[in-house]
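step 3/5: co-fold with 6-chloroguanine
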Amino acid sequence: MRIDLISIFPEFFDVLDLSLIGKAQREDLVQIHRHQLRDFSFDKHRSVDDTPTGGGAGMVMKPEPWALALEHVLTERPTPAAVEDQTAPPRPVLIVPTPAGELFTQRTAEQLADAEHLVFAPARFEGIDHRLLDWAQEHFELRPMSIGDYVLNGGESAVVVMVEAITRLIPGVIGNPESLAEESHADGLLEYPVYTKPARWRGIDVPEILLSGDHAKIRDWRSAQQDLRTRKIRPDLWARHVVAQERNLT
Ligand code: 6GU
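step 4/5: write tokens
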């Protein structure tokens, strides 16, 4: 998978060189390319923003530097294997982080983990001139995305979140694929609580059933813990889970 990140703070993405994603990059499972948006602005101050048309507070990102940066990414993109059999290569997915976007969930991450080429365009200020999005639709599969109902100063931290959630699903990135199936949200429920040795720590015992060696009972206990937790902490997820189960039964 190729990922392009365009920002006025490309250093923000240095954290992606650490830990599992860093390793995935070194093993060539994912190629992450960073671009400085200001490199595509050619006025004296390399400015990328201007005042909002119609008035109002703050500044708006000009569309031209973004279009030039995105065109640069399009010319750099690898020749897909599909070209050989004459089928049109899939358009890259352009993810524009915005609190006004579609909610990014584990399902979104799973879907995007299958893509060949993702481009992230995190804005600063009040956002990007909307005409850029109209223009980009012709070249990209456009996905405005929010990571939750709160406001960030810019899209960069949201990009780090999304890239991490997506790339860990690429085969080979996580050493033990079984851990992906068992974690929170994999089945629409929260994860069960986990414990390690010693069996008694500072006077607190691990649940006895986990020491029983009875794997069927342990599985049932963990499943019940998932239900309990989800009902209590995330009634919204629980309601959806109940509906999905009823559908599967009919
Ligand atoms: Cl993706 N961007 C910004 N700026 N704020 C957000 C967000 C994204 N998701 C939630 N809040």
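step 5/5: annotate
The longest strand covers residues 93-103.
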